[in-house]
Amino acid sequence: MRPSPSALLLTGAVLTEVAGTLALRVSDGFTRWLPTTVTLVGYGVSLWLFSLLLHRGGVALGTAYATLTGAGLAAATLASVLLFRDPLTVVQLVGMAVLAAGVLVLQTGPRAS
């Protein structure tokens, strides 16, 4: 089964936003040109893909934004644990599970017209 164009746009928006966020971590306050460029391009492409998703319709803004931020938060958190050795507590894992449940609930709502 092929993913829908909406799912591809949203996935691309999440991945580029996470790439921008991870680069932001190593940009040293925008003093390093390569991570700064990756941050700005990552956020820019993410917003562009998200705007295409909203333009084509079929996904409500609240649902799409919750998915973007929720999935982005989870992915950035897990990547920061792996790449930067950031700590991750059981309480934080529970919080991520609650967040995922909230996004799932939003996904079950009616589609945008």
Automatic annotation (TrEMBL):
The keyword Hydrolase does not apply. Coiled coil: none annotated. One of its GO terms (cellular component) is plasma membrane. It is a multi-pass membrane protein. GO terms for molecular function: transmembrane transporter activity. Its main location: membrane. Keywords: Cell membrane, Membrane, Transmembrane, Transmembrane helix, Transport. The chain crosses the membrane at residues 33-53, 65-84, 90-109. It is found in: Cell membrane. InterPro entries: EmrE-like (IPR037185), Small_drug/metabolite_transptr (IPR000390), Small_multidrug_res (IPR045324). It holds the Pfam family Multi_Drug_Res. It comes from the Bacteria. Belongs to the drug/metabolite transporter (DMT) superfamily. Small multidrug resistance (SMR) (TC 2.A.7.1) family. This is Small multidrug resistance pump. It comes from Klenkia soli. The lineage of its organism: Bacteria, Bacillati, Actinomycetota, Actinomycetes, Geodermatophilales.
